[in-house]
Design a protein that fits this description.
Structural class: alpha+beta
Strand order of the largest sheet: 1-2-3-4
Distance between the termini: 76 Å
């Protein structure tokens, strides 16, 4: 039978075997199919005041939460240039490529090989010296295919795809965290600005008091102790100003890093006292499971762990495969192509484990334990999400009362300063009463400014805790112009 005849005979059989193998590979994969563990959200968020409603600030884009134009520009720049976000994007591309790598094993692997050689051998023939030199040329095309009967490759692909989805959730988490970090850093910066204004005011006040006490001392109407105490208060305010200038510069540097830029000055918009806190409905508790990117990531990690159990189970079963080799060989280059497939081989193989010292069982138990770990981490992530939401809600509620009380205290202390100066000038109060009133006022103003900042941070934390912007596509995170 000629080589061509053998080829015509074998190729249909090989194709039939491949089609049959494809049907076998389409069977269900071994190992457990993924089922989300039972997690029942709390009926409502702790410290939730309003009745349960579907609307939530998490449904709003970030630019509708943070209305300060300067802050919006900073967040937009960070989303464009932040290096942590760029690294997250690169990890997604890496994960996508790994899906292709895992999936490729499901298909036949075809390769080629070329051979060229020259050999000298001793062949004892009559009438010759026995030394024979000859050339050898060959070309081969080979194909190998592991038939995925048990679903090992499909489970590995499932795990790789879950990792891809998890990395996409990581990117969304990075974007939400980045928005929150920039907003929090900006509000801290404008709070420092407010404290600096208070410190400058206190320095001017202490300077006025110092001049007053010095004049009275030089005229013999008061002791030098008043001058010395006023000088100490003035120097303290000067030290505070220097400290705040340093804090402001360092805060600007920290924001610059979030923007992916070298240290630079940061533009401000509305001052702290003009910042407005938006309405913050929280929505349904069940929605937090689909809004929070870290919860979504934790679930994808579970899906991947479940698929890896299937891979471990499939490793107990034999590997079934087909292989084929076609090519030509001759002593001259042109001889390789004179006849079709002068060299060919078609084979089916099966191989499997018999005894491996418990390696496969240990690998299976390790994957099962990893699954249990991912389930615990998923449930922990859900619990932490509710805790962070509750923390933000209680902060919002208590800070309202705290701010009102501090505003009353500041107003009273300002009146106290005015009254003490009036009494001192009238000779009915000592210098100590004046200094004490001033020394109580300015820390109270700082405390009020910090409370105003904390109210803004509570909004930031609640937006993040609820998974703000969850319904935005990746391209939609950029603020519309």
């Amino acid at each position: 039978v000629s080589t061509r005849a053998l080829t015509r005979l074998m190729v249909p059989r090989v194709l039939a075997a491949l089609l049959a193998a494809a049907g076998i590979a389409g069977c269900a994969a071994v190992g457990p199919n993924y089922k989300r563990p039972d997690v029942t959200p709390a009926p409502q968020f702790r410290f939730q005041i309003s009745t349960e409603e579907a609307t939530s600030i998490a449904d709003l884009p970030w630019w509708q939460i943070f209305n300060d134009k300067a802050l919006q520009e900073l967040i937009a720049e960070a989303l464009k240039s932040n290096y942590d976000l760029q690294a997250a994007v690169a990890r997604i591309e890496q994960a996508r490529a790994l899906v292709g790598t895992a999936q490729a094993a499901f298909y036949p692997q075809v390769g080629y090989q070329g051979i060229a050689g020259r050999e000298k051998a001793f062949v004892p023939l009559e009438g010759s010296s026995g030394n024979v030199t000859y050339n050898s040329f060959g070309q081969l095309i080979s194909a190998v295919w592991e038939i995925d009967v048990w679903g090992r490759i499909r489970r590995a692909t499932e795990a790789a795809r879950a990792n891809l989805y998890a990395q996409e959730d990581v990117r969304r988490g990075v974007m939400l965290t980045l928005v929150s970090q920039v907003a929090a850093a900006y509000f801290s910066l404008v709070e420092f600005d407010r404290e600096l204004a208070i410190a400058n005011e206190s320095r001017d006040t202490y300077k006025h008091t110092l001049d007053l006490f010095r004049t009275r001392f030089e005229s013999g109407r008061d002791s030098k102790l008043a001058v010395v105490r006023a000088q100490a208060s003035y120097d303290s305010s000067a030290a505070t100003i220097a400290n705040l200038n340093r804090a402001i510069a360092q805060q600007e540097n920290a924001i610059s890093v979030l923007l992916g830029a070298y240290a630079k000055g940061i533009a401000r918009g509305s001052p702290l006292t003009e910042q407005v806190t938006p309405q913050t409905p929280v929505g349904l508790t069940t929605d937090i499971l689909k809004r929070r990117p870290d919860i979504q990531q934790a679930e994808q990690t579970m899906i991947g762990a479940n698929a890896q159990i299937g891979v471990a189970v499939a490793n107990f079963f034999p590997t079934i495969g087909l292989s084929a080799l076609f090519g030509g060989q001759g002593t001259k280059v042109e001889d390789m192509f004179k006849s079709s497939f002068s060299i060919w081989n078609v084979a089916a193989g099966i191989s499997g484990p018999i005894f491996e010292g418990g390696r496969l069982k240990s690998a299976y138990l390790a994957q099962q334990a990893f699954w249990d770990q991912t389930v615990a981490q998923y449930r922990q992530t859900v619990v932490v999400a509710f805790q962070e939401t509750s923390d933000a809600l209680i902060a919002q509620q208590t800070l309202v009362d705290q701010r009102a009380a501090l505003q009353g205290q500041v107003q009273s202390l300002r009146e106290s300063v005015d009254l003490s100066l009036t009494r001192y000038n009238a000779g009915r109060a000592s210098y100590f009463e004046v200094l004490e009133a001033e020394q109580q006022l300015f820390p109270s103003e700082d405390a009020l400014a910090q409370t105003q900042r904390d109210q803004l941070l509570a909004v930031v934390n609640l937006y993040k805790a609820l998974g703000g912007g969850w319904n935005l596509a990746d391209k939609e995170w950029a603020m519309p112009r």
